[in-house]
Amino acid sequence: MPQMGESIAEGTITKWLVKVGETVERDQPLFEISTDKVDAEIPSPEAGVLLEVRYGEGETVPVDEIVAMLGAEGEELTSGPVVATVTKRVEEVETPSAAEPAAPQTPPVQPVPVLVPPAAPMEDDPDAALKERVRTHSSPVVRKMAAAAGVEISQLSGSGIHGRVTKADLERYLAEGIQPMAAPAVSATVSAATAQELSAPVAPSSVPAVREPGAFQIAPYSLGENVEIEPMSKIRQITAAHMTYSKATSAHVTTCFDIDLSRVAKIRNRAKENFLAAQGTKLSFMPFIFRAVANALKTNRKLNASIDGTDVVFKKDINLGMAVALDWGLIVPVIRNADQLSLVGLAKAANDLAERARTKKLAPQEVQGGTFTITNPGVFGSLWGTPIINQPQVGILGVGVIEKRPIVASDAEGNDVISIKTMSYFAITFDHRLVDGADADAFMNDLKHTLTTETWTELDPYL
Fold first, then answer.
1. H or E segment at 449?
2. DSSP 184
């Protein structure tokens, strides 16, 4: 299992692309994984035959753990040098004696984060001490989130190796709205059966069981109701936790502007064919919008910032996140230093990131470090919406469908006329803890000014 970024401690195998016994080439995609940061295809490190798969689809595996064995055709794992090169798992595995039958293996349980009393490891038990250090040493992002929320990580048990608390664990915990100091501690000696019942995904059943209604949850279905149940994908779980956490963290307010894109549409239509021929990439409306957003962020610093307790962190770099809709979820790759890129550079960066997002070729660092996000639901026909802020940012811009509409305008003599314009609704959601309505409207007016007055002379060679 590769480490897909400095703070990534594990990955979930979502799909095997090769079956045991099949031949693979070097760098051929072997399996797909999902982490807290990115979905990716993992290439085979060498050519050979897939001899063994140790973890199936849906299982979460620590980094550096062996997930499969490759070898030569006809080679067996029980013979020769293959056995000598097998690395033991990080987890302690007991070998049953000859007199005892091997216990059937069960998939590892993904526990929900719960409060547990911090247990000091015994001084004469180095393994226990190691596990405790691993469990409490979460990533810097998780530790910062926990500190801001007043949560003590040592009191939580997560789904990572040795109970390590991941970002998704903390987001799910915070989404429950539980006050950590007021919640009663749960015994660390929870039985395996209870842990599995709490954490295992609901399996499809012809006769669904009725969940016990809790204080904060209404049963999602009733006895005898005709339903089909399937577990959420990893990326869906992460998105759900992140969106819930964002709504619980930021004071969301949305304002909407109707913006005339006729000038952009005219120049784009004239340049797009020559642009494609010369640059090998399409010229959509988005590079124009990226440029206008980057310009507006330079003069409206509050929208390119984050909140750290009672401090405001103003970002000096302008890194634009662009939401990309996938068949299996949503991901937000980042265009770094967008204010320093030309239209050509913005078009190439956006198209490249979107294509690699759809083919699971993104690196973890390419979905981190965004300072402002743009989402484009208009490609699906939406007029406008109220997007949720991508934490820890304080603003997100939603671009509605770009279409021709009749607009009341004035002619050269000041008379009102009905004219056909290329229009779009731009909606910005901002965090009212930092950004006031006047700040957001100033940003939107600067954005609008660029899109309606810019001459875009750098496209002259393609006209």
1. helix 437-453
2. P
∠ CA 173-179-182, nearest 5°, is 130
Q: Which residues of the chain have pLDDT under 50?
A: 79-123, 126, 130, 178-215
Pairing of strands 329-331, 416-431: unpaired
The per-residue pLDDT for range 93-152, each reduced to its tens digit, is: 334 444 444 444 444 444 444 444 444 444 455 455 545 555 555 665 677 677 777 777
10 sits in which H/E element: strand 10-16
Q: Is 436 a catalytic residue?
A: yes
Q: What is the DSSP letter of 112?
A: P
Catalytic residue among 436, 439, 441, 460: 436
Domains and CATH numbers, the chain: 10-78 (2.40.50.100), 114-238 (no CATH), 252-462 (3.30.559.10)
- The secondary structure of residue 392, as a DSSP letter, is T
Compute the distance between CA of residue 182 and CA of residue 155 in angstroms, rounded to an integer: 12
Residue 24 main-chain phi, psi, to 5 deg: -125, 150
Joined together, the tokens standing for residue 165 give 């608390």
Amino acid at 120: A
| Tally of CB atoms within 10 A around 178 | 14
Distance CA 102, CA 61 (A): 22
Question: CA 309 to CA 296: how far, in whole Å?
Answer: 26
Catalytic residue among 260, 432, 441, 449: 432
Q: What share of the chain is helix, strand, coil (3-state, %, to 5)?
A: 35, 20, 45
